[in-house]
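Input record (one chain):
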Amino acid sequence: MYQSVGSLEAGSYEVTGYAKETKGKGGTIKGFYGSEEKEAEGNAEITSEFTKFQFTFTLDEVQTDYKVGFLISSEQGAWVCLDSLSLTKTTDDSEKKDETDIDASKIDDATDLIQNGDFESGDTTGWTITMPDADSSNVGYKVTTDSGMTNNTTNYFNYWNNNSEAVDFSMSQTITSVPAGTYKVVFRQDGAENAASGLSIKVAGTEKNLDATVKWNVWNSQESEAFVLDAESDVTVEISGTVAAGYWGDIDDIVLYRDGALETEDDTDVVDSGADGIFVEKVKNLSDDFIKGVDVSSYVSLVDSGVKFKDWNGNEISDQQFFNQLQEAGVNYVRIRVWNNPYDADDVGKWYGGSAVDNQGLFDFTGKPLASLNVFKYVNTGATTTRRIDAVAALEQVKVGYGEDIQAALPENVNVRYNDKTTGTASVAWNAEDIAAIQTFGDFTIHGVVNYTDDNGNVSVFNTTCSVAVLPENLLLQGGFEEGSDAWAITGNDVDGKLTDDPRTGKQALHYYSANAVDFTVSQTITAEKAGVYNAYLYIQGSSDSTIELTMSNDTNAAAKTELKTSGQSLAVALLTEEELALVKAGAKIYVKMNTKDISDTVSREEKQLVEQKLDNYEVGTYLDITLFKQIGDSSKTQVTETNGAIEITIEIPRELLNTDASVNCVYKIIRIHDGEAEVLDGTFENGYFTFATDKFSVYALVYQDVDSTGTILTAPKTGDNWNPAGAYLLLLIGMVLLAAVFSEKKIRK
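The corresponding structure, as predicted from the sequence alone:
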C-alpha cells in the first residue's frame, strides 16, 4: 500500500505508524519510497498488540508525486491493522525544538519564581505533595530518571495508582509577589496509553482538565487558562484531582510565564450603554480603519415601497439623516449592489428588488433603529448594561420510581444564560397541579417558572419545562447488573459471561460469548405481592445468528402462608407511636403489610452459626426473612423492625415438614436472629399451623424435633429446602437461548 505525495523537498524524512495482527499469525512491515525496490531504513515485527514502527529515508532533490508506502508480509489468514500513519520531515538535533518550548519573548523574570519546576534537584523541594493513600508500592510518587526515556533524559516527577479505585492527589506551590500582568502555566506530561489522569491544573481561580496522555515517552504540552493579575499578588499553582484506577503518569518542566500577547489594553473607556440594554465585548487591538459595514443595496427599493426609517426617538428621517445615523452608530463602509434591467415587474411589486428580511436585525418593523445598530461603535470601546437572564437552559429528563416523591426529584435550580454571555443558576417554582396530576407511570411534562430580579429591581419571568419519566417498580434484583449477577441463576455449559463489556447504561452488563453453538438460560424467581398483569423487558445486542427468548411463568400452587394473628386495637398499639395513634383516632387509615421470604439459600454463614448454637437437638427446617411495614394515611410506607409489644404470627407448616407417623410427636420452635443475637421462641402447633409471638422482625429459623412415645429424640432430619412460604410466586425466566448459533470469527466481539 502507498500514497503519492504531491511535493517533497530535499532532506530527511521519517515514516511512523502503529500495527498489530489479531489472529496470532504475526508478520513484518517495511517502508519504501519512490518504488517498492527502494526500502526505507528499518523494519518492524507485527505482534498481537499495537506497536509503533519507524522508517527513515533521505531525498537529495525535490520530488513530485512521490510514492511513500509499506510492504507487509504475513501468513495466510492473518488480519493486520494499521493506524496513525504519518510522514514528517526531520531536522538535525541542533534544530529540534521541544513542543513545549515557549517563545523566549514571552518569558520574563516571573518564570524563575517557580522553584524546582524541572525537578533537577532530584526531589520535590518547593512542592507540597498530598496523596493520602501513598504506600510507595501500589500508590505513590517520586522524582526519577529512566535510561529508556529518549524524549526526556533528565529528572521528572512520576506518580502512579495501581489500586482498583481512584485516589486523591495534589501537588502545589505558592509563588509570592508576582507582578501584575497576564500569565499562564505550562508543563509537559506523559503517561498511560490513551488514558485520562483525572487531574486538572488550577491557578488564580481558573481550572482546566489535563488532556489524556498518549503513552510512555510521548510527551505533550499542557497549559492552564490565562489569568490576569491587576496588582502584585501571591499565586498558587496546583495540579490535583483523583488519579484514575490503574493510571500512571509523569510531569516535568513546570513554568509560569507572562504572556505579552494576551496583555489587555486599558478598559477605562468602556461605555455604559444602559439605555441600549446590551453587552458588547471590546475587540482588543482593533485598528482605526477596520471595516465595519452594512449592505444598503435595498435602501432605495424599501423607501419606494413605503418603508419609513426613523431616528432613536421615533421621528421620520431623510435619506441623508439615515446615512448620518449609520455613521454615528459606527458604520464606516457600505455595500451597494446594482440590479439591471430588464427585471420582473411582478417581483418588483412585491419586494422592489430587495429581500423580505432586509435590515430586520438593525431596525424594527416600524423603521426605528434597534440597540444592535450601536454594536458597530461598541466593538471599539465595549459596552455594559444591567445584567439579566437571556435564556433558561433545557433540562435533562428526571427519572423517578412509581410512588416516589416527584417534587423532591425535581431540580431546585436551573442553569441560565445572562445577557453578558456568562452563565449561572436561578431558582425555579414547579407547577403543583402538574405534579398532582401524575397518578401512574409514564412520561410527563411539568411546567416551571423562573423569576429574576435585576440590580435595578426589574422582574423578568421565564417559563421552562421538565420532562419526568415515572418508572414502574422493578421487582427484579440486579436488573442492571451494576451490583453483580448473584441474584441470577445462569445455566449452560461453555459460556464465557462477563459484566464489564459493552454496557447500555452504567458500567456493567451481562456479556456472553461462546465459540460454539450453545443453549443457556438466565433466570430469577421473585415474589409477586399483588394480583395483576406483569410485564418484563430487557435490552440486548449481539450477533444476528442468536435467538433470544424472554419468558415469564408463575406458580400459584404453594399452599403455605404466613399471617398476622394480632389485629385491631392491639396491633395498632404495638405498631404506632403516640403521634400516629392520634392521627388514626382523627380518621387516618392505617395499612399494615407483612412479607415473608425463604432465605435458606442466601442466609449468611454468621447467622447460621448463631442458630446452630441454639439448636439443642433440633433440626433446621427453613430460614425465613419476615419484614413488617406500616403506612399512615397518605404518608410513605416505612419498615418496622421492633414493635412496642409482642405480635402473634401464624405460619402454615409446609407439607415437607409435617409428621405423618402417629407414633412420633413433632415439636416446632422459632429461633430469631436480631442485631447479631439468637433467641429461641416457643409457640403452639395445631392443625398444621405454628403460632408464636415476637416484637422484632428480621431473620427466623423454623426448627423441629421428633420425639417417640418413649421420649427418645429421633435425629433423622427432614428437609425444608423446597419450601417457599409466600402465597404467590412469579417466576421470571429470562431464557437467552442461542439456537444453533454459528459465530464466525468476523462477527465475534469478545
